[in-house]
Amino acid sequence: MKEATHTARSDGSFQNHQAEPILFNVAEMRRKLSVRPNDILLAEIDEIDSRNKRVYIKNESRAFTLMNVSFSKLQDYARDTVMVNKHTLISVDVVHDCAYDIITLKDQFRDWKDKQVILSRKYHAAFYTRMGLRK
């Protein structure tokens, strides 16, 4: 499988021009995982190492730990995502309901039954703008 064409920026982030999969190092495997931009549903900071992110991917039965990747790189790569707090990045496709500062996610996985994330004040305006909602 070929790696996607992307342009590196001076800050180390990248812009994916073809929406092709990009390969990530994964803690659970000895090989790299190919991820398409629209397949990232939720990313959270790993509890063991904050440089790593626990990512839920569409059409996968479990979460993966992407190694040494930042939220800004994930957000540059997956344009349909939005930061909701300093620990969590979500896809706009998984938002089921939003009640001021509590976001309820759609049941995408078995362990997501009534899963909620907190929307922090810092990301409140950006989230509502991205979702096309009024504050």
SSE diagram, text form:
Elements: E1 6-8, E2 14-16, E3 22-25, E4 32-35, E5 40-45, E6 53-57, E7 63-66, H1 71-77, E8 81-85, E9 88-91, E10 95-99, E11 102-105, E12 116-118, H2 121-131
Antiparallel strand pairs: 1-2, 3-4, 5-6, 5-9, 6-7, 8-9, 10-11, 11-12
Describe this protein's structure.
By secondary structure, the protein is mostly beta strands. It has a single domain (6-131), classed as Beta Barrel (OB fold (Dihydrolipoamide Acetyltransferase, E2P)), CATH 2.40.50. Helices cover 13% and strands 37% of the residues. It is built from two helices and twelve strands; from the N terminus they run βββββββαβββββα. The chain has a five-stranded antiparallel beta sheet. The longest helix has 11 residues, at 121-131. It is globular and about 45 Å long. The relative contact order is 0.15. Residues 1-11 have low confidence and may be disordered.
What string gives the helices and strands in order? EEEEEEEHEEEEEH
Structural class: mainly beta
Low-confidence stretches: 1-11
Instruction: Give the proportion of residues in helices.
Output: 10-25%
Based on the structure given, which CATH architecture is correct?
A: Beta Barrel
CATH topology: OB fold (Dihydrolipoamide Acetyltransferase, E2P)
Mean pLDDT value: 85
